[in-house]
Prior knowledge:
By secondary structure, the protein is mainly alpha-helical. It has helices at residues 12-35, 39-50, 56-63, 67-79, 101-122, 130-155, 161-174; strands spanning 83-87, 95-99. Strands 1-2 form a two-stranded antiparallel ribbon. β1 (83-87) and β2 form a beta hairpin.
Amino acid sequence: MPAPLIDLERFLPYRLSVLANVVSSAIAQAYGERFDLTIPEWRVIAVLMRYSGLSAREVAHRSRMDAVAVSRAVNRLLRAGRLRRAMAVDDRRRSVLEVSAAGAAVYREVAPLALRFEGELLAALPPDEVPQLYRLLDVLTGRAEQLSGQLRREWSPASPPQRRARTAAGRRRRG
């Protein structure tokens, strides 16, 4: 039996990814050349401006970015003097990150641009639909997190294809 063909123009994960890429790229064009800043670097700065004193792992978790991308961004930001690394007060084995004065200066210039872009983007919606959009995004994010764990368990390398097939067949019988 052939695999079903995905209609990408109606496939929600694809559409959300395209939207996120268009928005991120539009804003990144404005700050990328001026500040020699990548999208992951901007996200790290933005997260740390909101939640100072996180580890790189915590930044990755909060931003839902790949840990390798966060690590690269953090290293570049440290070399550029836009971040500082220190030992956590409560656990000397853990390092935490803070935005430096240079990083904060970049943030102060980029944040208004990002907020203006967001405002102009949301202006495409009637004002009373904006809270509904945020509510729906929260619902979909929560559900995606639930499904992510489920898919990881079903498709983990430790889960042979035969077990996945038996698990799926069992759900169909119970379902």
